[in-house]
Amino acid sequence: MARKKVVLTSPTAAGDKLDGPLLEVEDLRTHFLTPAGTVRAVDGVSFTLARGETLGIVGESGSGKTVLSRSIMGLLPSRNVVRQGAIRYQGHSISDYSQEQMRSVWGTEMGMIFQDPMTSLNPVMKIGNQITESLRYHLDMDKGEARDTAIALLTSVGIPEPAQRFGEYPHQLSGGMRQRVMIAVSLACGPRLLFADEPTTALDVTVQAQILDLLHQQQRERHMAIILVTHDLGVVAGRTDHIAVMYAGKVVEKAPTSVLFSEMRMPYTEALLNSIPRLEDSSHTRLKIIGGRPPDLINPPTGCNFSPRCPYAQPRCFTDEPPLRPADTAGHEFACWYPVGTPEGTKALEDNVAAGVPAAVLATGGEPALADQGASA
Ligand SMILES: Nc1ncnc2c1ncn2[C@@H]1O[C@H](COP(=O)(O)OP(=O)(O)OP(=O)(O)O)[C@@H](O)[C@H]1O
Ligand code: SF4
Ligand SMILES: [Mg+2]
């Protein structure tokens, strides 16, 4: 089948604004129309990403991290989806690109490592061919050139005996090796932006660290920007320039990484941080769990989405939705009426502990009365 090329509208075309941000996302909304109602999976997300930078997107399961990445890449189902807002890539508005135009962006400009390599690698195709396919399609390489490049890529992502592995199938590799192959596939055409969606979730801790180090090394060598999606604040701590925390389809706090950890304002961010096991904790230390369940995205709560679970919540939180507002440090924004570390936040938490509010008692290390457990959910 003859390959169709898209010309000029591709962001690689002449006229790229090389001095501007790589990616700008403005008030992005992705809603799914389902028989049960409208699922507001992404609900007004804005951020910018500079070239070569890493943005961590963190949040619990169902907070909209994958839908956000897929919305930017134009990888959404074709029906019953409403996507609104602006997405600019190198100054080009790609939100109104057709699927065919986006195809010229995938691989060469934006790559994606999916959550589960077993579902994204083709199980009946040799791993080498999964890499050469995109090299031949996008970069017009001949068979020999594509094979040499694929073997070099497998080598660079740490696959031993790459020439032999080239002819093997995904099921013949371990989970860590499959994830390395997935990285090689996504890097093949030299994207400037890589989405890494929970790239290490299914792997054991040592392999996780190796894969994250590999991504970091590839990023430095290629001056590539990364959007690193994870539910684990610990994963993004030392590996990102900025972090955006998502809750129920919205960004509720974003900041340069060091600022987020030293000056976090949003109680949900604090709860995520407290739920990470720390090396210095003894094995008997109980993790502070986030009580209650994430909200229903079809009928979200009135006011702040986190209010039914928040240790700091006050009456206003159940009626008025807090807007994202700037903190003292440049680039830091949060959405909360009673921010962590401020006099009003401290008083709200103290009042809730004194009143025996289960979420507040749990968050401060106490045991809520049995009859109260789950009452905050
Ligand atoms: N095609 C779809 N139709 C309806 N709802 C959808 C669809 N795809 C995703 N959703 C819903 O959108 C919400 C966000 O899903 P998403 O996959 O982005 O979460 P996530 O943050 O990536 O979670 P996880 O950490 O489990 O991967 C979820 O409530 C999910 O059920
Ligand atoms: S204090 Fe109120 S506004 Fe802030 S996160 Fe808790 S519920 Fe939301
Ligand atoms: Mg996901």
Strand content: 15-25%
State mean pLDDT (0 to 100 scale). 87
Count the beta strands: 12
Q: Quick one: biggest sheet? A: 8 strands, mixed
For this entry, give a set of tags:
alpha/beta, Rossmann fold, 19% strand, binds iron/sulfur cluster, 377 residues, 8-stranded mixed sheet, 2 domains, binds magnesium ion, 12 strands, disordered C terminus, binds adenosine-5'-triphosphate
Please outline what is shown here.
The chain has 377 residues and is of the alpha/beta class.
Please characterize this protein's 3D structure.
There is one protein chain. The protein contains 13 helices and 12 strands. Strands 6-7-8-3-9-10-12-11 form an 8-stranded mixed beta sheet, sandwiched between helices. Strands 2-1-4-5 form a 4-stranded antiparallel beta sheet. The protein has 377 residues and is of the alpha/beta class. It has 2 domains: 23-240, Rossmann fold, CATH 3.40.50; 247-277 and 286-372, P-loop containing nucleotide triphosphate hydrolases (Rossmann fold, 3-Layer(aba) Sandwich), CATH 3.40.50.300. Helix 5 (143-156) packs across helix 7 (175-187) and helix 7 runs parallel beside helix 8 (205-222). It is 31% helix and 19% strand. 43% of the residues are buried. Residues 1-15 and 371-377 have low confidence and may be disordered. Bound molecules: adenosine-5'-triphosphate, iron/sulfur cluster and magnesium ion (MG). Magnesium ion binds at residues 65-66, 115, 197.
